[in-house]
């Protein structure tokens, strides 16, 4: 084949290819893309859930410290060791030792002897007074001496109890049966009642734990006792713990009175630790099942975020009717249902954009339950394509308009 024949063949092929491309382009240009997307409301099961996180703790923890200042002299227990009520855990080295107790004991003994003597003496003087052998003034003086000896004895006994309590407080004992879950005490460590030093932590039952959950202030109004909770410990990602909320705290954990920092609140869930898998401080994550609506007529939340001006522009461009609700009508519809959530959607019907008010129920942040305002046959606008002003300019250029 000669060179000129090859050139002619190449030109013919390019022409055919160009013609095909032009045909496809013209064909596609005839298929108009709709500038808006609609969808009929559908029946769905909508769940309102709250994502949560928390920390595991042992229920019934007793914190044991010292009410006396001094260094730790002896320690008799260690972590994870079971203890009985009254068992000696540690001894605080107190400079006084039991000196005050001994001195107080001696004073009580002397006061008791004096009181017994005064009691016997008073009984004899009373008999003389009753037989008329003792004057009334003398009898009253003996009565005062007897009463004073009784008061002195009571005073010394109180001082002995005080000294004994102070001395016994240097001997740290278990307040109840349990298990040592934390032993902070070390020999030589200074225990002070001023700093409220914590020497030991005792759990009454390590199989009984609780999860302290942190709930944001934006969700705390939905959280109540008895709601179902599903938790997963970080240490056991394949484990699901199912239980219910046992209590909700009213005290804020974070935040200020001015409200410039979001507050959070604690909710509690009991955790069964009979297999001793969990430890205090473990992190758990999960969700609270707040409420569920089955077979609820619903639509996408996208329907509530449309720009009215764009709807108006699309209606004008595509020769659709445009029927919005006035501000006065919207306010009136909202005011008519003060205890409900009222929002507005756009419905396409017979080549018209019609704005309607709907009453909302539950939402899972993807779909919203529509209680009333539209029916299953309505076409709700979910998305719109913003008009392209440059496209109009280009059309004018090619038409010779500019």
Protein described:
With 402 residues, the protein is α+β, with helices and mostly antiparallel strands. Helices cover 31% and strands 37% of the residues. The protein has 6 helices and 20 strands. The protein has helices spanning 3-30, 99-130, 136-168, 308-317, 327-335, 389-399, and strands spanning 36-39, 42-58, 61-65, 70-75, 82-83, 88-93, 171-173, 178-183, 190-191, 198-203, 208-216, 228-233, 241-254, 264-272, 283-300, 321-323, 341-348, 352-363, 367-372, 379-384. The longest helix has 33 residues, at 136-168. It is elongated and about 150 Å long. Residues 393-398 have low confidence and may be disordered.
First-residue to last-residue Cα separation: 50 Å
> Helix count?
6
Major sheet details: 6 strands, antiparallel, barrel
Major beta sheet, strand line-up: 2-11-14-13-12-15
From the alpha carbons, calculate the radius of gyration and give it in angstroms: 43 Å
Poorly predicted segments? 393-398
According to DSSP, the number of beta strands is 20
Fraction of residues in β-strands: 35-45%
Helix-strand topology string: HEEEEEEHHEEEEEEEEEHEHEEEEH
